[in-house]
Every structure is written in C-alpha cells, then in structure tokens.
Amino acid sequence: MDENLRREIILDNYQDPFHKGLVDDSSYHKVNTRSDSCIDNLDFMMKIEDGVIQDICFDGEACAISTSASSILVRKLIGMKVLDAEKLLQNYKNMIDEKEYDSDLLGELNVYDEIYKQPNRKNCALLPEVAIEKLLRELENER
Fold this sequence. Notes:
By secondary structure, the protein is of the alpha+beta class. Helices cover 49% and strands 17% of the residues. Strands 1-2-3 form a three-stranded antiparallel β-sheet, with helices on one face. The longest helix has 24 residues, at 119-142.
C-alpha cells in the first residue's frame, strides 16, 4: 500500500473516528481494554440482535494506531453476522501477528500490514480486536 494513502487513512480515522462516543442504552454490552505499556484505555459497547452486530461504539484515550484501528474495525463490523465478524477479526489478528491472512477480507485494515516493523505498536493495533473479541465471547455466553 502506498505510504501516503496509509498515512491518510490512519490520520482520518484518528482525527475523526467512526462511532466514537458511548451510548446510554442497557441493550448494549460494555468492556474496557487498556494497554500495559502506554496511555491506551478504551471502552467498547456492542449490540447484537439475531446473530448480527447492530452497533459498536467506543470512547477513551488512545494513540493514533489504537484509535484508527478501532474506527476502521467498528465501521467494518457493524451489520456483519457474528460468524463473519469472528473470521474478519481472526484474519486481522493473523496479519498483525505475521501469520497467513486474507487481505481481500480486511479492506482498509490492510494499513496495518507492516505494523510488525514496530513491535511496540502491535499491541496498539490489537487493542480494539481484543475488546471486540471479549464482547463477542460475553454475548455468546449469555445466549
């Protein structure tokens, strides 16, 4: 991916993140995720109905990588069936961990395909994935 395009996507999603801000609605489930090594501390809320992710939102303090990754993941996941969301999240995690993955499935998330070159930033890129996986597990346990 072109470096200028990569930078533009990350900055756009950092400066104007999609669905940033929490809701006051008891039909949503909420989790917190934070980094042990930096300022990243985000809350995520999710609503699932009939096996489809109806909404996800997030808020908190985080670096450009965590915020932009959260924004892109949220935008991609809303409207997805839970099984498809799990597949997307696994592919994203595989990419960050330098394992085999389907780049066509990830779309804009491919901006993080070289994050492995900065090992200390891998945690930042994975923070939203960890939170969303936790929400999916909690909601799965409630069914």
